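Hello again,

I reread your note about wanting to compare the complex against the isolated chains. To keep things tidy I'm splitting this into two emails, and this first one only covers the full assembly. Below are the input lines as submitted, including protein chains and any nucleic acid or small-molecule components. They are followed by the predicted structure of everything together. The single-chain runs will come separately.
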Amino acid sequence: MIGKPKHQRLVLVVIALVAVLAAVLLAMWGLRDRAAYFYTPADIEAGKAQPGQSVRLGGMVEKGSVQRLSDGVTVRFVLTDGAAKVPVEFRGIVPDLFREGSGAIAEGSLGPGGTFDASNILAKHDERYMPPQMGNQSAEHQTAKTVAK
Amino acid sequence: MTAETGLAALWLAAALSLLQLALGFAPGMSKSGSAPIRAVAVLQGGLTLFAFAMLVLVFATTDLSVALVAENSHSAKPLLYKIAGTWGNHEGSMLLWVTVLGISGAALAIFSRRLEERTFVAALGAQGALALGFFIFLLFASNPFARLDPPALEGRGLNPILQDPGLAFHPPTLYLGYVGLSVAFSLAVGALVTGRVDRELARAMRPWVLGAWVFLTLGITAGSYWAYYDLGWGGWWFWDPVENASLMPWLAATALLHSLNVLASRESLRAWTIMLAMIAFSMSMVGTFLVRSGVLTSVHAFAVDPKRGVFLLILLAFYVGAALLLFALRSGRLSEGPEFELVSREAALVGNNLLLSVILGVVFIGTLYPLFVEALTGAKLSVGAPYFDAVVGPIALALMALITIGPLLNWRRDSGERLKRLIIPALLGLGAFIILLMAVPQDGLLAKLGFGFAVALFPASLLPLLARKLGRTPLTTYAMVLAHFGVATAVAGMSISSLTTSETLIAAKPGEIVSVGPWSIRFDSIRPIAGPNWTALEATLYATRGGAIETLKPQARFYTDPPTETTQSAILTTLTGQLYTVVGQQVGDRWQLRLWWKPMVTLIWLGGALIAIGGALALLGRAWRGWRKAGVR
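Full-complex prediction:
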């Protein structure tokens, strides 16, 4: 195919190695600024997340903190881990099981004013489901079980 | 009694798989030919199927003295979902997995007659070895038949998101694909043992890979549509680890399918094809590990007993390690195949394999990266669409270019003469790209390029039929054309829908008129309704874009056992796209409505279906050819 026919196998092996290397380099380049880290409100308060950087923020929805704006589709609430509090703003339909006093993960980035702009909210999916990341924070739902697939 | 019968069958099948392993590899055993090991494989598969049938029976009758039923079922559930509930949980789905493994082994024993005997016996032995490991996992770490004493009074129900016809067929379809690849793995092991990697092996392996690939394609396509309408998020692919778990074996199987063609036609790419066959099933096992061990954050990851995760990881490491070791020891002995030129069908297929492997690599790394980082540093992170879109997209475009060119090249060497036929398709594609560039102001270069490539591929994929007598063209050529046409269809759908979707999110009072894209939608009313095990608030929407008035009824549903809320989207499918509507929560006297107009989005799944039909046609074509040959003899 390339070069002398005698070395074709060698050429193919080299091509395969190049492919593996290309995949690894490409992945590393992609992961460098596209992986979203998971932070707790305390991490945010400690300044671990840069404003604008896409992260996941997980905590409990503070009781009494959920308020709806007059447009009917924007919601503001506070995520807390007991140590720190972060105000979150989200425009959209919150998940079915988004409740005050239960766990939620907000995907988005920290705005300049210290409010977290969420582009997506993940909540405890049903009474038995709990994302492993939230499982570490509250012991009450440890008896989760497998469903589906 | 049913549960105990099932458990006994499982133990017996496990013992037989040990025997199968011994018959396959123990020296001297092969003297008696392949008859004994064939019989054992068939019996093992039959017993596993029987055990699975017993579990289905236990679920169908809601036997609450079985722990698994009590935890996952409910007597008030419709029968279809009781039966589907059999595999809607960890233990049951693992049993289904092993059942497909057993049936695959039995089918290999029954149908593969033409392969060299020693290779064949070793392959069945390898299939036995795979089965044994997973039997041990089932019996010691995931017994589906464990009793509950005293029996429960009522079952705990099933996640209502999963009470959907999609669930009834989605996992079994995917499993047929996942585990069907085990046969390719076993045949590769057999070929390495005997050192015979030739045309015959490729022909023996091809129907299994084709079949598994068709099921994987169907499973992924159906799963994507299911997530699209059931989750109510309006997206059709989320790069969720579980989706990736099914995509990775598909990518490997697609590469394998193409390299098998080289092996079958030209006897080139021997070691590479063997490697791919091993990788493909390894990816199935990685997928099973990711989904079943609960290590990942995902809609599907339900924190499970960590013991099981470790057990699965050990199985995975053992099988992949053993296969790689065998490959390292034996692949050097394989003789090199015939040569080919830089411009040739083989070279194009090597390119296809490389690009698919790179995609597989970046998906694999992106999916597992969070696990490694957390294990090493304790930091938690997630890798999602921004990563995958950015790294997979450009490679996928290069692959599109290759699909356009490859089928027009000759085996061994090509003058490139026929590539002139691509001028018109290329100009069409370029034109489409330029039009999009000017007509759609927002960015999305990748999608615009994607549409350009798709427009070029539509006519180009038909070119292999040009200047041929259509009646005498083999069915397999039609199959390839159809599958490649399906790729163009799916990519066109992805590009157009991502570029032109319009979305409206609003809180509206009944009687208000809302617009999205070309549609004007009247929010007529909202009222409570009731189903067998749920109640719901159902909105009535009247939609029109000038012509007839269509009715959509999205619901917010509340299930009683277990208490859960879900959104049921209402979708209107038209020739030019889909109107997707979701009703959210009540805000004072208003209701949240989320509306999407998604032009051409249906092409995505239509394309997936065409690809799968292409695969099925190829399978049929091979069977037909084989049958005719046998008839002539």
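For quick reference: The first strand of chain B starts at residue 380 and ends at 383.

B.
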